[in-house]
């Protein structure tokens, strides 16, 4: 159950300015005042994270990190953290997806790390810092950035004499050309199972679902930009030009593997997932920039991404913050994340590390894959702030868009349902919402 949040607790506005003018390099190491051995508890569900922790522990004998896999991921974990906060039983450090961080801040589960980590403004761009900074305070170091891109079956596109669409208008035209050439094939799908996917597309179009001014929130999930995105896909669905099969479903996996789906609007991390989705197609896909609404515009949204946060229960916040900084900001930490977790660093310097010189194995036919991702990352645009109940918004997305597809009603109406559900829940939780 979602825990009640006081409206005045969460930061009113997002600050993108520097935390400090000092550019100190993260070094790891022991406690600054003693040789006492400290153990930090860290909860994270990512595969390969144990090896990253091992790398830290070898470098820092007096600050040892103990990794625990949570019993549940996402909001299952976050709700447990909220519940356990008052009991004082939370770990020192927790993994947090960007959209969930405001809820943990609002519930005072996590604490600022500005006293321990300096100079992030010299290492990260505004879009990345906006995911972890609220009311001028920093609650994590950005770990990865996940710009949205377009994956396509280059072998089939070449056979059909087609190229990756540069604009959404071209996407629609190409979708029609594919359908004409082979009625059984689709350029892609619309997914009612992935609210983060739609949020990223709305970000690209200029949407800003939440704003805060003092204790007053403004919620505009059904704004014009978001409805433009919904209407675009609605038109493609009605014309039969895209598949309505949701991502990750058994049928979607089959269609991605057998060539029924020859395109996918995805994100940077796609090659990490494709081997289990379309195992027979390795080396046949290529990545291209996400189609733009206006030719030449490089703006893209994100789909996914996370940080690590220091909890209010930690008795060693300085050491915990040092670990977070090392992992996400130091060359050694980022190299370990790339190698072991397949993360794409939010740090522009991290995006140039030697570990990214080779493409993901699934994309071995595209040597410049990571260069493309670094270029795409420069155009990332995100929401100014995520709402404190993004879980309700996300749940409403799946229900509302799934219902619209089933009933064949306008997708834009699903945004109205999301708006109503989000505002109603915020008011119930005690937030002041304008309008």
From TrEMBL:
Q: Does the keyword Cell membrane apply?
A: yes
The record ties this protein, via Pfam families, to:
SBP_bac_1
Is the Cell inner membrane keyword given for this protein? no
Gene3D superfamilies the UniProt entry points to:
Periplasmic binding protein-like II (3.40.190.10)
Which residues belong to the signal peptide in this entry? 1-20
The family database entries (InterPro entries) matched by this protein are listed as: Bact_solute-bd_prot1, SBP
The record's section on SUPFAM superfamilies has: Periplasmic binding protein-like II
Q: What keywords is this UniProt entry annotated with?
A: Cell membrane, Lipoprotein, Membrane, Palmitate, Signal
PROSITE patterns the UniProt entry points to: PROKAR_LIPOPROTEIN
Protein name as annotated: Sugar ABC transporter substrate-binding protein
Organism placement in taxonomy: Bacteria, Bacillati, Actinomycetota, Actinomycetes, Propionibacteriales
């Amino acid at each position: 159950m979602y825990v009640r949040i006081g409206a005045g607790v969460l930061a009113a506005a997002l600050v993108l300015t520097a935390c400090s003018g000092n550019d100190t390099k993260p070094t790891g190491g022991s406690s600054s005042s003693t040789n006492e051995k400290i153990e930090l508890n860290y909860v994270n569900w990512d595969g390969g994270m144990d090896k990253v922790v091992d790398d830290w522990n070898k470098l820092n004998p007096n600050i040892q990190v103990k990794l625990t896999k949570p019993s549940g991921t996402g909001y299952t974990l976050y709700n447990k953290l909220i519940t356990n906060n008052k009991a004082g039983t939370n770990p020192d450090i927790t993994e947090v997806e960007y959209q969930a961080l405001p809820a943990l801040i609002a519930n005072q589960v996590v604490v600022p790390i500005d006293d321990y980590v300096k100079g992030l403004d010299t290492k990260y761009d505004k879009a990345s810092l906006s995911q972890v900074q609220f009311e001028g305070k920093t609650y994590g170091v950005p770990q990865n950035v996940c710009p949205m891109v377009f994956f396509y079956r280059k072998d089939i596109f070449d056979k059909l004499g087609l190229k990756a669409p540069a604009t959404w208008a071209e996407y629609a035209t190409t979708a029609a050309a594919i359908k004409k050439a082979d009625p059984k094939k689709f350029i892609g799908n619309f997914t009612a199972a992935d609210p983060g996917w739609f949020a990223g597309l709305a970000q690209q179009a200029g949407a800003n679902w939440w704003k805060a001014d003092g204790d007053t929130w403004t919620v505009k999930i059904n704004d014009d930009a978001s409805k433009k995105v919904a209407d675009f896909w609605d038109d493609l669905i009605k014309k039969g030009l895209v598949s309505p099969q949701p991502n990750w479903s058994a049928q979607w996996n089959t269609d991605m593997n057998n060539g029924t789906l020859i395109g996918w609007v995805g994100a940077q991390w796609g090659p990490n997932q494709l081997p289990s989705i379309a195992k027979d197609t390795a080396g046949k896909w290529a990545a291209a920039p996400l189609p733009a609404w206006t030719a030449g515009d490089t703006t893209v949204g994100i789909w996914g991404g996370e940080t690590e946060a220091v909890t209010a229960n930690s008795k060693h916040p300085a050491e915990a913050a040092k670990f977070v900084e090392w992992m996400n900001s130091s060359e050694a930490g980022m190299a370990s994340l790339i190698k072991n977790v397949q993360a794409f660093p939010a740090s522009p310097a991290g995006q140039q590390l030697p570990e990214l010189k080779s493409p993901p194995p699934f994309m071995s036919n595209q040597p410049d894959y990571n260069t493309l991702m670094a270029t795409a990352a420069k155009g990332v645009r995100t929401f100014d702030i995520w709402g404190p109940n993004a879980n309700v918004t996300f749940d409403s997305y799946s229900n509302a868009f799934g219902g619209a597809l089933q009933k064949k009603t306008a997708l834009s109406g699903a945004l109205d349902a999301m708006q109503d559900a989000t505002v109603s829940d915020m008011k119930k939780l005690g937030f002041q919402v304008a309008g």
